[in-house]
C-alpha cells in the first residue's frame, strides 16, 4: 500500500483520501512532500486568483478553509507524479505527491538486417526493453522488404519479451534542409515511404535529423524542412507512428543545434501532434547546454518546456561525449567515459522530467553485446 509520510508518522494513503480518488498504482510508488513558504501569508491576496507555482508545475489556491486548498496541474508536471494531499496553514502550504515508479525503459541501437524478430533476440541478450534500428541503409537508400509474416512474428516476440519501445532511425542521407533538389526530393519521399512502411509493424517512433542548410542560412533551411514535413504529414495515411526531430550538436550548417530552430519548425507547422522531439545528450552538451549540474539540467528542462513543451519530448538518446561542452562536435563516447561522466549521466537519468522516458544508447561498441554492460551500469546508476 502506498503511504503518506508526514511529521515523522506514516499514514496509509487510503486514510488520507476519499476512496477511489487514485487508481491502484502499477508497480512501486514513493510519496514525497514539498513545503512551500509563501510571502503572501495565508494567500489572502490570491483569493479568487490562482497562485502559479510554476517551478513545481502546480497551481495552489485557497478555497475558503484551512483544509480545503485546491490545486491544478500545469504542463510541466510529469505525468507519473500525482498530487494526493494538500494541507495549508497561515503562511505555509505542504503538498504531498505520489511518484509512480515505472520500470526503466532502456535499450540500444540494434540491427534488423536479419529481421525484426532477430533484433528482439539481440535485445534479450543485452537485457534491454527498448531498441532502435535504421529503417534502411544509413549511408544509402536501399531498404529491405518487411513482410507480413515477419511483422506477425515480431509482434508476438515483442509482447513476450516485454519490449516497451521500438524506434526507427532515418538514414543519414536524408536532408530536408538541403539546397540540392535531387537530395531534397529523395529525403521527403523516403521519409513518407518509411512512415507508411512501418506503420503496421508496431514501431512507436521514427527519429529524423532535421538537416543541414549547406550555407544558405538557417532561415532557408527551416523553410525547406517545414515544406518537406508538410508534404509528409499530408501524405501519411497511417497514424500509428510519431515522427521525432532530434536535437543536434550544431556542427557545420546543421539545423537543430539551437532549440529555437526546432521551435520555429514546430510553430510554422502549427504544432502538430504527430511530431515530437528526441533529445540526444551528447548533442545537447556539444551545443552548449550544461548537463553536468542540477542547475544546468533544470535550465534545459525549463527551456524545453517553455519553448517546445515537455509533452513533446518522447525519447532520449543517452550518449556520453568525447568533446567538451560547446564544441559543436558530434562525437559519442561510452557511458561514463566522456565529458558528461558518471555524475552527469546520473543527473540525467534521475531527473524527474526525464527519468521515465525511453533511453536508447548509441555509444561506440565493437559488438552489440557490449551494450549489455552499459545497460547494467545505467540501471545501477538509476538506483542512486
As for the CATH topology of the largest domain, it is: TIM Barrel
Major sheet: arrangement of strands: 9-10-11-12-13-14-15-18
How much beta, percentage-wise? 15-25%
CATH homologous superfamily descriptor of the largest domain: Divalent-metal-dependent TIM barrel enzymes
Structural class by helix and strand composition = alpha/beta
Assembly annotation: single chain
Residues in helix, % = 25-40%
Number of helices: 10
Note poorly predicted spans: 1-77, 88-93
Find the count of extended strands (DSSP E, 2+ residues).
18
Distance between the termini: 23 Å
- What is the alpha-carbon Rg in Å? 23 Å
Main β sheet profile: 8 strands, parallel, barrel
Order of helices and strands: EEHEEEEEEEHEHEHEHEHEHHEEEHEH
CATH architecture of the largest domain: Alpha-Beta Barrel
How many domains? The number is: 2
So what's the overall shape? globular
**Which class of the largest domain in CATH terms?**
Alpha Beta
Q: Mean of the pLDDT scores? A: 81
Polypeptide structure, described:
- The two termini are 23 Å apart.
- With 384 residues, this protein is an alpha/beta fold.
- The protein has 10 helices and 18 strands.
- It folds into 2 domains: 99 residues, no CATH class; 277 residues, Divalent-metal-dependent TIM barrel enzymes (TIM Barrel), CATH 3.20.20.150.
- Helix 2 runs parallel beside helix 3.
- Helix content is 30%, strand content 23%.
Amino acid at each position: 500500500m502506498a503511504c503518506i509520510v508526514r511529521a515523522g508518522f506514516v499514514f496509509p494513503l487510503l486514510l488520507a483520501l476519499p476512496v477511489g480518488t487514485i487508481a491502484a498504482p502499477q508497480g512501486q510508488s514513493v510519496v514525497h512532500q514539498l513545503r512551500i513558504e509563501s510571502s503572501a501569508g495565508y494567500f489572502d491576496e490570491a483569493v479568487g486568483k490562482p497562485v502559479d507555482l510554476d517551478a513545481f508545475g502546480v497551481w495552489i489556491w485557497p478555497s475558503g478553509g484551512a483544509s480545503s486548498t485546491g490545486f491544478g496541474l500545469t504542463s510541466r508536471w510529469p505525468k507519473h507524479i500525482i498530487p494526493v494531499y494538500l494541507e495549508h496553514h497561515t503562511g505555509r502550504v505542504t503538498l504531498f505527491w505520489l511518484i509512480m515508479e515505472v520500470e526503466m525503459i532502456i535499450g540500444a541501437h540494434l540491427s534488423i538486417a536479419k529481421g525484426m524478430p532477430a533484433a528482439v533476440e539481440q535485445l534479450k541478450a543485452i537485457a534491454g526493453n527498448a531498441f532502435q534500428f535504421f529503417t534502411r541503409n544509413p549511408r544509402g537508400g536501399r531498404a529491405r522488404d518487411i513482410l507480413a509474416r515477419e511483422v506477425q512474428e515480431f509482434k508476438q516476440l515483442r509482447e513476450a519479451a516485454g519490449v516497451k519501445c521500438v524506434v526507427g532511425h532515418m538514414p543519414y542521407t536524408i536532408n530536408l534542409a538541403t539546397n540540392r533538389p535531387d537530395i531534397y526530393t529523395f529525403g521527403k519521399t523516403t521519409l513518407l515511404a518509411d512512415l507508411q512502411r512501418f506503420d503496421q509493424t508496431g514501431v512507436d517512433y521514427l527519429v529524423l535529423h532535421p538537416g543541414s542548410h549547406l550555407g544558405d542560412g538557417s532561415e532557408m533551411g527551416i523553410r525547406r524542412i517545414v515544406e518537406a514535413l508538410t508534404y509528409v504529414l499530408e501524405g501519411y495515411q497511417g497514424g500509428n507512428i510519431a515522427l521525432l526531430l532530434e536535437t543536434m550538436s550544431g556542427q557545420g550548417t546543421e539545423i537543430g543545434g539551437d532549440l529555437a530552430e526546432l521551435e520555429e519548425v514546430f510553430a510554422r507547422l502549427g504544432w502538430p501532434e504527430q511530431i515530437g522531439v528526441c533529445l540526444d545528450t551528447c548533442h545537447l552538451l556539444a551545443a552548449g547546454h550544461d548537463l553536468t549540474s542540477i542547475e544546468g539540467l533544470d535550465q534545459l528542462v525549463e527551456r524545453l518546456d517553455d519553448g517546445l513543451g515537455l509533452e513533446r519530448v518522447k525519447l532520449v538518446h543517452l550518449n556520453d561525449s568525447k568533446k567538451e561542452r560547446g564544441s559543436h562536435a558530434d562525437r559519442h563516447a561510452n557511458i561514463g567515459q566522456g565529458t558528461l561522466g558518471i555524475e552527469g549521466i546520473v543527473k540525467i537519468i534521475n531527473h524527474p522530467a526525464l527519468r521515465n522516458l525511453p533511453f536508447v544508447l548509441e555509444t561506440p561498441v565493437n559488438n552489440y553485446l557490449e551494450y549489455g554492460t552499459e545497460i547494467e551500469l545505467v540501471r545501477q546508476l538509476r538506483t542512486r
